[in-house]
Amino acid sequence: MSLNSLIKKIIKEETEEWVDVSPEEYKELLDYVNGDGSFIKRLPDYVGKKIRITGELDLRGNKNVTNIDSVDLVEGDLDISYTKIPFFDKNKVRGRFDYWGSEMQRLEKLKIHKQRLAHQDVLRQDDDWNVENDDKESNETEAIFEYLKESGNVEEGEDKYFLFKENYNHYGNSSVYLWLGSKNFESEYVVYEGDKIYDAAKEKLESLIEEVGFDAFREHVWENHIDERYVRDYLYEDYSEYIRESPEDWNINKELTDQQKQYLEIHQANIDRLNQKLEEGGLTDEEQEEIENDIYDYEQLMEATKENPEGDYNEQEIEDTIENMVDDNMDEIFNILKGRGYSDQDLLDFVDVEAAIDYVIRSDGYGHTLNSYDGTEDSYNINGEEYYVMKI
C-alpha cells in the first residue's frame, strides 16, 4: 500500500463514526434486508458508519440470514450456528464465537478435507504405507484397512490412503486415524500394538481413577483387592488401642504376681508333704481327718489365688484378641471407614489399585476397557505382530 493510500485509509477510519446497535435492533434490520446484512450499510443511518453490537447476538438456526458483514464489532458472544453465513471474522467478537453447523464451518471442513486428500495422495504416489515396508504406520494402516473392509465401509476406488493420521494419540501413545471414505466419513479409529495394549488399558483406568476416584469400579472390585498388609496394620493399631485401654472389657485375664506364684508353690509343697503322710499310713482316724482338712484348706487357698490374680493382664490373650478382631473385620473395612467419615478418595489408600486394575482388564477385556464406542476389539496379525483396532 502506497503512503498516499495509507494516509487516506487512516483519515477515513478517523472520520468514520461508530454507531451502537442492540442485538434486537440488528435482528430487525436483518429482517428488513431479507437476511443479507451487507445491505444495512447502504441504509441512510449507517452509511460510512461502523456498527457495534452492544450485547450477545444470537442468530443460531436462523436459515434466512446469509450475511452479517455489516457488523464491525460484537461486544458480547456471537452464535451463527446452523445458519447460511459463509464467513465472519472471529477477531471482531469480544466474547465467545460459535459457528457449529453453519455454512462457514462446512466450507472450512471442505477446505481441510481437500488438504487432507492432497496430503494422502502424496503418500499414495510414494507408496509410503506399503505393508511390505513392515514399519509402524504401514502395519497400523493395514490393520485398520482390514477392519474397514470386513465391516463393509470401503467403497470401490477407496484404498488405505483414505486414512489420515491424526496429530494426537490415544492411551498408550497409540495412533489415531481418520477415515476419509464415503461411508462413516470422518470416523476415528485407534490401533494398538499387541505388546502395548495392556499398558494403554492400564493408563485409561488410571486416568479414570484419578478423575472419579472410588467410583471408577464397582465396590466389590475394591473389596476383593484391599491392600491386606495396610488394612491389617490399620486395624491392628486401632484395636490394639481399644483393647489395651480396657482389657477387662474384652474378658482378658490378669496374670499371677511372682509372690502369688511363690505362695502357690508353697501351698503345693505342703499338699505334697501331707499326701506323702497319708500314703505312709499308720495314722489314726483323727490324724487322717486332720491331714485331709489341711489339704483341703491349702487347695482352697490355691484356688482363691488363681481366681484372683493381681499381676498384669495376660499379654498373649491381649495379642490373640487383637488378632481375632482384625481377622473378623478385614472384610468390613469399607463399612468401618465410611462409618468413621472417610471420603471415597480416602478409601483408595486401603486398596491395591494395581491389582484391581489388572483384574478389571483381564476380566472385562481390552474392548470393554478402551472402546467406549461399542466395547468391541478386533485384532489382526500383520507381519507377525498383533494389532488391535477399535472405532472411537
Can you walk through the features of this model?
The structure is a single chain. The strands form 3 sheets. A 5-stranded antiparallel beta sheet has the order 7-8-9-11-10. The chain contains 13 helices and 11 strands. Among the domains are: 3-101, no CATH class; 254-312. Strand 8 and strand 9 (188-193) form a beta hairpin. Helix 8 (258-280) packs antiparallel against helix 9. The two termini are 50 Å apart. By secondary structure, the protein is α/β, with parallel strands linked by helices.
Which structural traits does this protein have?
13 helices, elongated, 11 strands, alpha/beta, three-stranded parallel sheet
Question: Can you give me a brief rundown of this structure?
Answer:
Helix content is 49%, strand content 13%.
Task: List the topology elements.
Blueprint (H helix, E strand, L loop, with lengths): L2 H13 L1 E5 L1 H10 L16 E5 L3 E2 L12 E4 L3 E2 L17 E2 L4 H24 L9 H15 L12 E8 L3 E6 L8 E6 L3 H16 L6 H5 L4 H18 L12 H23 L4 H23 L7 H15 L3 H7 L4 H4 L5 H18 L7 E5 L2 E7 L1
Parallel strand pairs: 1-2, 2-4, 3-5, 5-6
Antiparallel strand pairs: 7-8, 8-9, 9-11, 10-11
Helix pairs in contact: 5-13, 7-10, 8-9
Shape category: elongated
Q: Which strand-content bin applies to the residues? A: 5-15%
Helix percent reads 40-55%
Radius of gyration over alpha carbons? 43 Å
Biggest sheet statistics: 5 strands, antiparallel
